[in-house]
Amino acid sequence: MPTKILPLFPLFQVLFSFPFFLPLATSTDFNFPAVFNFGDSNSDTDNLVAALGIRLDPPNGQTYFKAPSGRFCDGRLIVDFLIENHKLPAPSSMAAKTCIAILALLCLFPLGNSIDLFDFPAVFNFGDSNSDTGNLIAAGIESLNPPNGLSYFQQPSGRYCDGRLIIDYLMDAMDLPFLNAYLDSIGTPNFRRGCNFATAASTILPATATSLSPFSFGVQVSQFLRFKARVLELLAKGKKLNKYLPAEDYFAGGLYMFDIGQNDLAGPFYSKSLDQILALIPTILVEFENGFKTLYDQGGRNFWIHNTGPLGCITQNVARFGTDPSKLDEIGCVSGHNQAAKLFNLQLHALCTKLRGQYTDANITYVDIFSIKSNLIANYSRYGFEQPLMACCGYGGASLNYDSRISCGQTKVLNGTTVTAKACDDSTEYVNWDGIHYTEAANQFVSSQILTGRYSDPPFADKMPFAMKLKF
């Protein structure tokens, strides 16, 4: 099974094959095999424009490139002249390698027999860590250590999981390659069939100064706009990059998928009351609606929208907010968090219905992830699991094996003792991987339930009469 997973690349630009030299003489002292550039706009060849979707208009670039090139200049920068004088290729950037569209979810027979209803040429995904295949890590904001990735990739893959995410299973079910992260440009990634804009820790609401991820939903949409414009620009120059980029009509025929909102609800619990958080929901959904409309105006017509899961059942939230047994429900989850998730989902569902009425030529599918995950946690033993709430990779032992001071794979000194957050012996017995995210086995279960079509509005169970091969 091909993975198409690539090495990680920091958001800060890397320039290859850029030896320094003396203009009138050649010196082996400066014969470097590669150059890594760190800087600001004086040597940025497209990173800010590509990462944040900022638009540069003419006359930027007019003197040399004849069009905006991502440089804050009318033409070439110092770094361009240095490279050009040494007869080396122009500096590469994230955008030049590009990312296209494909994101996930649509179901087809596990043996590869596709169904026309879900036969999309590409998928564009927007979200948080539930579907991030490497963006936050590629941006250089965080790093992941083993045993992340152990169950499938055999090493950290940019995913906050021991293996595959829901999106990976759905892509595999469609017989499509795994999605490459938009910010990952190392190794000539192929974006012909998809691009993933989802970034861990992202929110629907705009990021603040204290946000871990600056790539909020609005920024991800701006990244898509930049991506699409860049793709069309490159396609117009010839066929050389066609095998790496989506065709122009893929943007209209592709699937736009969303799995975001969890952090908008979970984060505020550290500083706000439940009533204050519930009052935020309409504002959150206005922001989501604005992003949806932008993508529709860009030609998107096929939309797949996941609601948010049971936040109160995440190990981290149980450890922090569930110390008082009166705050827990009958299965040990934090009631207030789940109440917020339910109200968010109710209003998100209503928004989907509203959008369906407004945009009659669009296909909008709402997927009830909350019900699938709640069923898994409530009936875990029925589905072959042994631990519904305890983290597989963590520190602290029973009953949650979670300590917010140390992440999966880290080694730290806590209370004068050096400790390591290690993985359990068998992650397939656990629903939760690292205290926040699900294990590969749990993601497989959730994917299998999505693919039945019973948890979608409109449902598609009659069109998808199959089940994935599961571990149980």
What does this structure look like?
This protein is of the alpha/beta class and 472 residues long. It has 13 helices and 12 strands. Helix 5 (166-173) packs across helix 13, helix 6 (217-235) packs parallel to helix 9 (274-297) and helix 9 (274-297) packs parallel to helix 11 (335-358). The radius of gyration is 23 Å and the shape is globular. The protein starts with 14 loop residues before the first strand and ends in a 15-residue tail after the last strand.
- The general outline is globular
Determine the oligomeric state from the structure: single chain
Structural class comes to: alpha/beta
Number of strands: 12
The SSE order reads EEHHHEHHEHHEHHEHHEHEEEEHE
Radius of gyration: 23 Å
Beta strand %: 5-15%
Largest sheet: 6 strands, mixed
Strand order of the largest sheet: 4-3-5-6-7-12
Search tags:
disordered C terminus; disordered N terminus; alpha/beta; six-stranded mixed sheet; single chain; 13 helices; 12 strands
